[in-house]
Amino acid sequence: MANPDDTPVEEMMTVKSSRFGEFEVARSTIITLPTGLIGFSQGQQFIMLEHKPPFSWLQSVDNENLAFVVVDGYEFGDQYQVEAPFGDATIDLQEGDEFAILVIVTVRSDPKDTTANLKAPIFVNLKNRKGIQVIFDNPNYSTRFPLWTEEAQAGEETPSGDAPKGEGSE
Amino acid sequence: MLILTRKPGESVYIGDNIKITIVEIKGHQIRVGIDAPREMRIYREEIYNQILEENKQAADSGAASDQGLEGLAAAWSGRKGSGGATSALQGKVKLTSGTGNPEVVIKKKKQ
């Protein structure tokens, strides 16, 4: 792989964020959503910032005021099964390619009302860092899956912690 | 809006590779068949609008307090699952705090 260009290994760029201020990131870490998030076709380039794990921020590079809280789809365990958009030309995802699933979180003024949009996650091809939001027309996956569960609260309040991991909690 | 009249079994082409066929008319319901390239995303309008609305609300999460997120993160520890591929996506910047506090950003803008 001869590279005739004398490009530096890490090309840095400045990102402005109304929440996090101004900082530099490697251009190679940018995530592009070629078709934009549904309803937000302008903010197409994002960087992902780890914040309060497991939550991260997708901060728009183009619009300092645009940022989304996201969580890794794998955090929802095996019950969350969504089909990756293999064959999708927008992000050039082929079978066998590695990808990430980002679930968008809506944080409301009362954190207990926070929900995750399981119906429309973002798939990111790790090879080219291109992503696309895909809607799953599946009644099992809500756009407002509550994150703050009774179970989690109980876990906080019960020091004994003898509850198994909340399976069959009905 | 272009309006065409079609009978069941008849089709309409949009461009060269999208074909919409009226499959069946049953009372007030019409079954529509769509042949389109795989990368074309096709959604029922109400679901599309639902996602659009949720995206807009999620964008307003910018008002979320750090404490709120912290509480959520703590509550999350009661859950299963393991973060998978997202660490590979993260930028070189790791934020340790937020809310207009650029000093705590590890890699600050060079002068």
Gist?
Chain A is mainly beta. Chain A has 1 helix and 10 strands; from the N terminus they run ββββββββββα. Chain B has a 3-stranded antiparallel beta sheet with strand order 1-2-3, with no helix packed on it.
Q: What does it look like?
A:
Chain A contains one helix and ten strands; from the N terminus they run ββββββββββα. Chain A is mainly β and 170 residues long. Chain A has one domain: BH3618-like (Roll), CATH 2.30.290. In chain A, strands 3, 4, 5, 6, 7, 8, 9 and 10 form an eight-stranded antiparallel sheet that branches. A two-stranded antiparallel sheet of chain A has the order 1-2. The termini of chain B are far apart. Chain B has a domain of 51 residues. Chain B has two helices and three strands; from the N terminus they run βββαα. Chain B is an alpha+beta fold and 111 residues long. In chain B, a hairpin with a 3-residue loop joins strand 1 and strand 2. The C terminus of chain B is likely disordered. Chain B has a three-stranded antiparallel sheet, with no helix packed on it. The chains are: A mainly beta (170), B alpha+beta (111). At the A-B interface, strand 2, strand 4, strand 5, strand 6 and strand 7 of A face helix 1 and helix 2 of B.
List keywords for this structure.
heterodimer; A: 170 residues; mainly beta; BH3618-like; eight-stranded antiparallel sheet; two-stranded antiparallel sheet; 1 helix; disordered C terminus; B: 111 residues; alpha+beta; three-stranded antiparallel sheet; 2 helices; 3 strands; 23% helix; 18% strand; elongated
Order of helices and strands of chain B: EEEHH
Uncertain regions spanning at least 5 consecutive residues of chain A? 152-170
Instruction: Tally the helices of chain A.
Output: 1
Query: What is the CATH topology classification name of chain A?
Result: BH3618-like
Q: In the CATH classification, which architecture of chain A applies?
A: Roll
